[in-house]
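Many introductory courses stop at the sequence. We go one step further.
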Amino acid sequence: MKIKKLFIALVVLGFAAVATIYSCKKGDLNTTDPNVLSLANSFKSSADILAATNSIYSVMHSNDIIGRWQFWVHDLRADDGKSGGGQLGADLLSILNGVNTPSNDITTPYFTALYTQIHRANTVLDNAPRATDNAALVARCVGEAKFLRAWAYFELVSMWGKVPVYTTTVKTPSASAPLSSVSDVYALIIKDLTDAAVALPGKSAYGPSDLGRATNAAAWGMLGRAYMQEGDYKDAEAALLKIPSSGADGYSLVTNFSDNFKQETAFNNESVFEVIFTDKGDNNFNWGGDNGVGDGPTADQTTVRNQEYNPIAWRNLIPSEHWAAEFENTVTGAAKTDPRFGFSIYKTGDAFDNDPGPGTVLVDADQNGQTTHYLGADIKLGYRKYMLIYEENRSTASFHPGGVDARLLRYADVLLMLAECANENGDMAGAIGYLNQVRARPSVAMPPYPTSQFPVANKDGVTLAIMHERQVELGNEELRNIDIIRWRNKGYYPSIAPEPISYYKKAGDEFLAIPEAETDNNANLQ
């Protein structure tokens, strides 16, 4: 049983609000709505705080964040993918092409929903002291709220740069905050994650009904990621090293690479933090409201990722030439072709159903849209990670929102972050050791570094191997654009490798534009 995605009756304000004023006579205005619970009657117990904490996870699962827009915004700002063809919507294409407008219909709801998540976290943090019946549970909820608030702020600061910071619930429009510096936003993220790591238990403390909750390892992992984005590799390494690799709370690489992206292998030993989705078997997706089939705002959440990227469905985004060419291949001089290409990417001619039979091999006619130039030929490629066609045939895959959980942090990423930290901290041998652990996964078994293509003879050579390994291991997992930003800030483009984003120009393309709706309603942003 997975964590239930609960909503509670909360007043959810963003930092922007619109007031409508009506003319009335004295005494006509009823200032108390008897149908709404007052704050004085709420949050009196640990059960109330737990319900409020569950509501933070609920918005995180929604289609405005992990369910849909989060993977889109990240992937479109990276170089792993390209347009699948004319079916890609105009607002999505704008992000892909670097047309950065404040009225974009994808970045606007994503930005707003992240602040909804922050507001719900602040609601828990403001009211937790009122519940005194179960101090241990309340303390854990506070840790979860801080973790989830920090994650939301990390999304905001890494995508938008300077953003408003709220550490308490917003109750009036006049409480709107100005932009905070990037360093101040990271300071809050680091404090929240440090506090969360102390308050949260290891994974063994959670039973089956609590799968999906944040753990201390998730907090340490996100803390390491935040420190790295700030260029603090010493503190990042210290945080990442606290993630255990053995025991009941330990993590390790799973044997089969593909088990990180399937429904049946959720919460495996490589998953440090994942967001739950449920395949309800009715092919309905919660587009944001009740559509007449009971798929309203309190329903279990599916993700539409399987539909958006599926090679035999919409195929809106497809693997790019740059990503496909990054995988080692004997054709281009490598000692072995990297199996992770086939684990990550479908190509014409691949079988796609675990129950093979007639019609279970991809042909060009299955895949609408564009080709990708790969190994000297134009071929149709599609994403394999998180797709459900490994267990479907053509007739069942025409429209199928999925239930594959989003793995936001897995142990392979932890090892690769440790490799980068070790290299930046002067330990080349340690960095190479971490890289080789990832390459040694039984289903991958790539030759260890050094190789002819990556001799890793000096720090820059190890950096190139880290860049390569992160792209082939973690491609299409919403991390590549964060890596690009970090390496850009380090000056590694173009000193070590060419700038990967073709449209990029400094002082203009680093961050997304603050949504127009927010600047209209927040006087401090005008």
